[in-house]
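In this section we walk through a basic example: taking a raw amino acid sequence and producing a predicted 3D structure, encoded as discrete structure tokens. The instruction is simple. Fold the sequence below.
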Amino acid sequence: MSKNLNNTGKKPVITGMKNYKTIFWKVVVGFGIAACLLATTYWIAFDNLRELKKNINSLAELNPKNIYRKNISKKVDDIDFYVRKYTMNKNDSLPALFDRSVYEVGVYMDELDSIAADNEEYGQMLRKLGFYINLKIQLGRQRLSLSEGYNSNVELSGIMTQIADYETEIRTQKEEKAQTENPPLSQQPADGVKEEPKKKENFFSRMFSRNKNKKRPKTTSPEPLTVAPDPFLDAPDPALKEIDTSTANNVVSSDKVKDILEDAQLKENAKTSRYYLEALTLMEKDDKVMDSIRSISATMEKMEMAESKATINRLTDDTTNRTSEILTNLIVSGVAALLVFVIVVYREVRHNNKLRKELIKEKKSTEKLAKAKEEFLANMSHEIRTPMNVIVGFSEQLLKTGLESDQQKLLLNIKRSSSHLITIINEILDYSKMESGIIMLEKITFDVEEVLNDVYVSFKNTADKKNIQLSYTMEENISKWVVGDSVRLKQILLNLVGNAVKFTEKGAVTLSCNISSADAHSQTLLFEVTDTGIGIPEDAQGTVFEQFTQADSSVTRKYGGTGLGLTISKKLVEALQGEIGVKSEPGKGSTFYFTIPYKLASAEEHAAYGNGSQDGSVKDALTGKKVLVADDDEMNKLLVQHILENYNMDVDTAVDGAEAEEKLLKNQYDIVLMDLHMPKMGGLDVVMSIRKKNITVPMIAVTGNVMKGEKDKCLNAGMNAYISKPYNEAELLQKMTELLPTV
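The resulting token sequence is shown next.
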């Protein structure tokens, strides 16, 4: 292939692209510098503001002076609470709590004094606060002592003891007197007169029942009762005299007790008055001290807030000044960098404007080159596949005839070599299409188990000849009817199983299919191909999927191959939204595995797949049908004619598109096999012309061109099906039987 030279005989100097890349990177670097400066500016400003906010929050919420002062105030309130509570209920645990609070106040005062050493005014207020707190503690101790010394229950107990002794003495005297004297008759109740029983009263009830709320002087005697004269009662009676004497004694006893109680009450009142007077005096002093403590604490709080505010202002000013300085420097640096950037870009743009036309010209040249490459691959594909189709086809037909053993072996070698050559051609073309991003995927309903069986059948004879056990397994729970691209799945499995059989000298090759994950509408299948072959070294496992790569150069010499099979398999798996990998150990074998997600086929899709199959044999379906074969290659026509005549079909041929169109207009055919590349008139031109004349005969496009969009182009033009060369007999007959029932 000749090199493209300019008029001077030298290679053209492509400066446009080089300069384009140069200016591109300069623009990128310039924008990068500007972006970095901007990002740095924002980051520094944000960092300073965040630090300022943190300082403000820490000063406002965690000021140690404020914390210690509040703790001191709380403990002073606790001291006052314990003193007041003790004066009411005399709880023995309260003095201990009082002492503990006094101790904690001292600790907090020491801590506050240590951190306030740098502020003389605050220190003076602190010492003043300490003086009043100390005075508060002293007053509290005095109040505790006063409350502890006051107890009225002691005096009352002594009084009750005196009264009890005196009552016992009176009762004893009465009992002795009653025993020494006989009771008088007058003491008995008179006839017909019933003495009314007296209500029993105790000592304190009798004493306080008279003049309950009136205080009487000690020298006052009870007033005599005035009673109306009664003849019966006026009679002298010793018993009545005894009753009068007993009553007088009782009155004397009550006066004695009353004297004791009144004396005790006077003493108690005097003692209580002194207690309350002293307690009131201490409380007034304590309230004044507490007012002073609160006033000093409020002053100290104002000083703390003023100090915090001053610190915040200082930090704010420092941060603002620092931020302003940094921003100013950055802005100046950014403006300088921007000016330099603008100058550089301006020079580069002005310098490269004159190269724009050259770049456009080179782009067009590149596009033409890419199109020429695609056309070259298409032509090469057609030119190579067409004779290969003849070689493979006639080899298959010859194998059906009666041949001697040696002849059959030679023919089998021809067929194997042809198949190997087709495999290499397919890999090269597939790789070229994939490099160009040309991967056509189908979504049809298919049976996964059928694909596994087809791959198994394809390599069964080869495995048997090498004494290798070939098998496949499929998990029972798999829904075998799925929607996807069965052709690409089969292509991947053929590559992997073919490599496994090729690199295994003894042992077994196993193909397995299991469920990786599943839900109600889809399932992800895990395919594994395991062999007992030569294995792959660990350092080479990462590169086996790269193009033109094999684990060892000696492998290529011994086993052959292009090194594209695994690369193509990886690209196909990724195109099918799956993943592929390998596990291997040299000398023990390898396991290639991949996963592909599939949608589960619905009942309607399954039924539609089943309706595509035909009842009866292929020969019965084709017998008597008239077919037109249009192909400019004589060998291909002879091959197709030979195959179809074996199925009792009426075969007519055309050597170019014009003849094919003429025969289609004159004759009735059941089906047409149309080559796309023919002289005078191409296959696509023929089908479009025929469809315009409302001729609906089924037509199958037969071509060696497998480039991007070729199949869609044929179907859009009016073809009913598409088959690429080289094809085998079964594939051709299947396409034909699928279309014939539609006639």
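Looking at the output, two observations stand out. The CA atoms of residues 468 and 506 lie 6 Å apart. Confidence is low (pLDDT under 50) at residues 1-17, 190-252, 553-560, 611-616. In the next section we compare this with other chains.
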